[in-house]
Design a protein that fits this description.
This protein is α/β, with parallel strands linked by helices. About 30% of the residues lie in helices and about 20% in strands. It has 15 helices and 16 strands. It is globular. The chain binds zinc ion. The site of zinc ion has 4 residues, from loops.
């Protein structure tokens, strides 16, 4: 097998590696080989390569890993947003409008929306993302949502338990029967995780437990939308069942914060994913990211991009909000938006041996063996992400070794 072509990226003023050995480096260089990072070190020690790119003192960091999005949808909820900004409260039922539009849309229309948003993410520095089903809510529409999502997403999650569909005639229990029965059968081949909206107005604790246990039996990773609109059982259930992540986590008592931290005692725990753009867009309290980190929990920052409650793909906006309003340092926020997302997706591991599938290469760190997912900022330091909020600073992007921007 011929060796993959190598590219030396040099002139890196500041390199954020998320690698405990290397940390944040000054005057660094790195070498990309095919889809992977092959070498990281001081610019002065850089080896030769087939090609060379000088980033002239700019900051380089891992591409964003957006571990929570809902991109398979149709329709528009501008009016609902406008009403909310005029004082109306958010309730879980807003999802129903998107369900109706999504079912009526063609595969081509849904795929075009996914492509448009995924392209927007790349331009903003996001090089890996998860997305969910959840606006189909019939066997056929959930299966096609999952298949369409898999064309672009790095990870697809089944969210048949998003809401009891408004036209469902049998009540919540019989809908859950479908979610864990025929619908799961149809969707399982296309997904790696299962999720449930465990909230007042969506699914209660016993129903959520049934959904998660059914997914676990199929070998799917577990995720929970929990504690978003008020206190609830989502976080406890997620930790009890060993979920990979519990997302939203805006309403947490001290015991729940400790539970999330303690979940990491034995190795793999439950990531607490905070969604700052969603908190702002629903005018809800910001999730207590500072408290979670201080307690020793592992957090991720994600966009929750969806047409109802968080219609942004901008991880940079989420990072700036986490620093300016949630009390994180820039380094903590960047780590949560890159490595944190990778951990939530189970993609933070060691590099597999040569010849392993590029689609399974580890994400979120810049070190040899990791997938070559990088972004170059139009700035000398990651600090500018919060120091210059709202300014599009992403200047260069590599995804799996391929230059995208
Ligand atoms: Zn969500």
């Amino acid at each position: 097998m011929a060796a993959a072509p190598t590219t030396l990226v040099t002139g890196i003023g500041e390199l954020t590696t998320n690698d405990d050995e290397r940390g944040r480096m000054r005057d660094a260089a790195l070498v990309l080989e095919g889809e992977r990072i092959a070498w990281v070190g001081a610019a002065a020690d850089a080896p030769d390569a087939d090609a060379r790119v000088d980033v002239e003192g700019r900051a380089v960091l891992p591409g964003w890993v957006d571990s929570h999005t809902h991109l398979v949808f149709a329709g528009d909820r501008t009016a609902e947003f406008e009403a909310r900004m005029a004082g109306a409260a958010y309730a879980a039922g807003g999802i129903a409008a998107t369900v109706e539009a999504t079912r009526a849309a063609s595969d081509e229309a849904l795929a075009a929306t996914i492509d448009r948003l995924a392209d927007e993410m790349l331009r903003g520095g996001t090089t890996a993302f998860e997305t969910k089903t959840g606006y189909g809510l019939t066997v056929e529409d959930e299966a096609r949502s999952a298949a369409l999502a898999g064309r672009r997403a790095d990870a697809v999650t089944y969210l048949g338990a998003h809401l009891v569909p408004p036209d469902w005639r049998g009540g919540a229990e019989t809908y859950v029967d479908l979610v864990v029965g025929d619908m799961l059968d149809a969707v399982a081949p296309h997904v790696e995780a299962i999720d449930v909206f465990c909230e007042r107005g969506a699914f209660d604790e016993p129903q959520s437990r049934r959904v998660l246990e059914a997914g676990r039996e199929r070998g799917l990773a577990l995720r929970v939308h929990g504690n978003q609109l008020g206190p609830g059982p989502g976080v406890r259930l997620a930790v009890e069942l060993g979920a990979a992540s519990v997302d939203h986590v805006a309403f947490l008592d001290d015991e729940e914060v400790a539970m999330l931290a303690d979940s990491w005692q034995g190795g793999t725990g439950t990531v607490a994913t905070v969604l700052p753009a969603c908190d702002l867009s629903t005018r809800m309290p910001l999730a207590p990211a500072r408290r979670l980190l201080d307690a020793g929990a592992v957090i991720a920052i994600a966009t929750n991009c969806n047409p109802g409650t968080s219609y942004t793909t901008s991880m940079a906006f989420c990072v700036a909000t986490a620093v300016l309003q949630m009390g994180l340092t820039i380094e903590e926020a960047v780590r949560a938006a890159t490595l944190g997302g990778a951990i939530a997706l189970g993609r933070d591991g060691e590099a597999p041996a040569d010849g392993a599938e590029p689609a399974r290469l580890p994400l979120g760190r810049i070190r040899p063996g990791a997938r070559a997912d990088l972004q170059v900022l139009e700035a000398p330091s990651i600090t500018h992400l919060a120091y210059r909020p709202g300014v599009p600073l992403t200047r260069g992007v590599w995804r799996a070794g391929e230059r995208m921007l």
